[in-house]
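Regression test attached.
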Amino acid sequence: MSAVAAYWHRLTIPARILLVGVPVVLVVGAAVTVGLALLAEPLVDFLGANMGLVRFVVAALLIIVVATVPTAFVVIYLELKVIARMNLRVGPDRVGPYGSLMSVVHGLKVLSKEDFTPSGVDVPVFTLAPVAVFLTTVMTLLVVPFAPGLYGQDFNIGLLYLFAVGGLNVVGLMMAGWASYNKYALLGTLRAAAQSISYEIPLTLSVVGVIILAGTMSLNSIVTQQAGSFLDWNAWRQPLGLLIFFIAAIAEANRTPLDMTEADQELVAGFATEYSGMRFGFFFFAEYVNVFVVSALIVVLFFGGWNAPFDWPWPVTLSLDPGALGIGLVFLIGLAPVVGTIVLGLPFWLLSSRISALQALVIGFLLFNLVAVAAVLAWAFISFDWAVGLAWMIGKTFVFVFVFVWMRGTLPRVRVDQLMGFAWKWLLPAALLNIFATAAAVVVIGK
Amino acid sequence: MSRVPGMGIARGMAFTLRRFFQPAETVRYPEVTPEIAPRFRGRLQLLYDEHGTLKCETCFQCAQACPIECIDMGGRDTKDRYALHWGAPETYAERREESALRRSGREVPDPVYERFEPVDVAAVDRILEAHDHDPRRMLTILQEVQAEFGRLPVAALKRISFRTGAWYAMVYGTATYYRTFRFERPVRSVAVCRCTDCLLAGGGRLAEGLAGGLRAELGRRTPDGRIAYEWLPTHVPGAAAPLVALDGEPQPEVTVRNATAWAQALTGEHPALRTTR
Amino acid sequence: MDRALKARLERRFGDRLAGPVRQRHDETEIRIGAGDVPEVLRALHDEPELGFTLLCDLCGVDTGTVMQAVYHLWSETTPDWLRVIADGLPREKPRVPSVTFLWKGAEWLEREAYDMFGIVFEGNRDLRRILMPDDYVGHPLRKDFHLPDDASRSPGGGVRPMESPGRPADAAETTVRRRATAG
Amino acid sequence: MTTPTRPSLDDPNLTIPVDRAGIFEPIPPARTERQQEFYALRDGEMLLNLGPQHPATHGVLRIVLKLNGEQVVDLDPVIGYLHRGVEKLCENADYHQAICYTDPLEYIASLFCEWSPVIAFEKLLDVQVPRRAEYIRVLAGELNRIASHALYIGFFALDLGGITPILWSFLERDEIVEMLTALTGAQLLFNYFRIGGVNGDLNHDFMSRLGDWMSRAGRQVEAGTALLNENEILVRRARGIGILDHETAFRMAVSGPNLRASGVPLDLRRAHPYSVYPELDFDIPTRSEGDCLARYLLRVDEIKQSLRIIDQCLHQMPDGPVMARLPRLVRPRPGRAYAAIEGPRGLYATYAISDGTDQPFRMRIHDPSFVHLQLLGLLMPGNLVADTMAINASLDPVMGGVDR
């Protein structure tokens, strides 16, 4: 025994890990394989039985991995660049073309920074707070329909779910502010709580008009009801609702001029004062993803979601059935690259004496790839409505993201009491007025 | 504020949007260097003369004139005898731990008397007392110190600057400015004549005696390097043979017999210069 | 130089003045005892023919022999600056009444004078250090304050008399003697 | 008077209570009654350390706020973090070097920090400054005033949350600083005013830059004000906040724009003319409200007046020498001199005592920011934390000048 202990102590840490880990992995792997082999059939049946759950989980994973981080990167870069241009600065222009990789580098920096935990904080809460904030923000993305058939889940209470999860956001903020044992954080948290409570109400009420018109809370069907030209959008039927929703959305996303929670001139960084490293990065990401979500919501509710602003001639019935080609398909797939390469490369070889045949072929091959990709994309764009929808949706959303950044670049910050007063004295009555007006109109005019 | 609520905000937004499309005023520094006014005083530079040697002779006059003591220099002194420093102690490795000691409040061994060849500062203090530690009488103080030691030991200069409160650069600048001050010990020359009649008169044995007394070969220096033992180029006209010259002065009293004793007496001169450890 | 102001001051404060009213360039200077500060300054501030409403500066001075509290006043009745010197405060335990009852803004200026010279302004309800840290020992601007200084202690830089470290025996005396002529 | 002793962290007697560790340093033992009443917390009140490292305190200012919720009950500014003992240093430098020491006192308007000591030394020496030098001083000084006010406007907006105007005002300031570099030879601490004149005459480089700038002077600042003055958010935040009436202003020994914003047309350039200002024609803008907005708008008006003064200087600039004849080492007769000038922040004053040596025996430097910072304790209580920023920014303190 002592010999074993002595041997164990002579091992390096990696060696110990391997020594223990490899057998464990083998055993567990074997067990899993056997288990799957035994349970395969019922498992498949179960998954097949409730596809919605599968779709939900997959969509969640996809959104977290694929959607949020790149989106946040793009929004951050947009903010850096746009505000810089409004300040007559250049903004980031060193990393990548036009500094487009700046936010990526920011992310790396944040990752590589020390994850510091100050003395006196409530460690578990302090650690969980960024996760809570980030997750609640990401969860809101699940029900946002980006294109026909391209959404995480289509609840029939989608809007309700949105506001519920979005409201959970403030819980994370409160955890952060309370746990970090710092007065700035505390003040920022209390502001955040008060603000989100005050602005949830006009936010929700301003949408009631839309719900009345649509007769449903499912975002998907709200969008589909706005199909047609841009005259069919809710923005025309609900201008007041749009205004209220926009203002309340600014407050919900904690953006200037209503960013009370981290008013960096007053409370140093608000609830995030004590955070550093990737924990701060989570707050950062959450904020910008939030901006994206809110803009997407504005688009979905008032600007027709993925619908094109004018009657787009689609779906084009492009009767292109690969199966019809039969054996020709094989030839096509087999010969197209060769022929395309030669055909596209030939002119270079003929026109320039300095280009050898090999170089010409390489150029031709590259060009062919470009052409092929372009062709496939065009085909998809014309024949798959989701591609068009996605393009329109993203485009509209980023218009509103730009508006948010634009406001941040322009406006000073309002004071807390003014903020509250505005919410309760102006937005709330206006929202109620909007509801009554809409209801009356529906009753009088009818659908 | 305009009457329409939100009008100012809208106007401001329009304004920033216009700015958004204006060209940026940024100067991309490494690629584009802004032209700096010819009057700009900001650049510190060391000038080289036409032979490519540094013009700065480390006299510290600039450093002491700098009101905010931002000039911070170190180097060899003009005759390349020892290293000089001007500036914050932290700048120089050999003084870092010293200032660290001082900041920690402990007793600091003052390096002034250790780095250079030590002399007995009592003599310096006596002179300073006589002059009331007045830096404005620096010239006379230095003259008296030189009269005392036959030269200006660096340790003495440090002591003077430490006691009078004059910057070391002032003291050192004054000392290097006047030709009468010297930092080395005076090298005295003991010369024997090698002309025929001196040799006939026993110059050879005289030379050996001197060599024994000075503990130096002919043409070499004494071990402490203060006396050069050489031969006269020409016989001093009218001097008796064999001829020994001290600093070119014929020494008729030196004979073959007392040569060694005289040389030994010569080597032991200037008691003040004897190092006191 | 405003002769009329001189006449006015002499007529008004003839008995209180410790020394003649001096005038040079655009400055008029009167010296009073520390005890007279409240009355004189109140009169200067309140009486319409004087009307020195603006306190331009308040500072302490250490002449090497005595301490002074110096007030500079501005009035629209005269083109001159008025300098009121509360003279002859003892170097140890200098005390002078505060003028915060006239100019509340003098509070910090008095705090600074206390911080730098140790002049105690009676009646200033917040008299503590302002520029120096709370636990600091000594009053830096006094003439007998010696500042330990690394650079000056180092072999490269000499030691100026005002800043002798463990102080050579004669530095302070020579300093004060050489400068005691002023003030 | 011995060497100072500071407590060191490895001192066993130095203990920081655990319950306060990480929030704020232990409450100091009360030395005065004022401190006692300040640090006695009623329930519902808490102390908040604003600074020394805080984005919105200009420089290293620490304000201990006593808050009730978000409302400021009382506050205790703690200054001295930037204290360099300039007065002591000046006593150990000769007269020319003393000017360099006063230079970095206020790094935003350095020329005004040089101006008052220079005038004081000239009084001590009975030097007559050439008129051309005086005009050049006024010209450079007004340029520097514009630069300072431009920065003020930007920072005022910044502390209220608007992040754009500050960069525009920096554009304006940058051009002026480039000009002054061409004239004085330094970017920030122009050590330009000398006893008996100025260091160097106007040169072509400066004049060309100035002429180029005068054509579009104040463009960026006007842009910023166009963005701000009409903005409801800013106006609502600044109007009626931190009101200072003129009796209180006099009692607080306030001077400069903060005084004029309270309706007192007191400008030393008129009230106590010191240079060639009597020969120049300009107005003294005043505002009656005395709140943050008034203080902000007053600066905007002063920029216009400064432009007028610059224009007149360029037209009336006489020819002649720019330095009086003086020995290298000046030894004024024993005496006292006081000189005060009107700077962008108020009254900069120097009280110099000469003892006949080549070093000033005592050199007192009065900086307006130091006096104005007291107003915080007067104006802030009752306002919200957000307003502390507005008030602090509108008073425009420069900590370099406050701490000296």
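Expected vs. actual: identical. The two ends of chain B are 86 Å apart (CA to CA).
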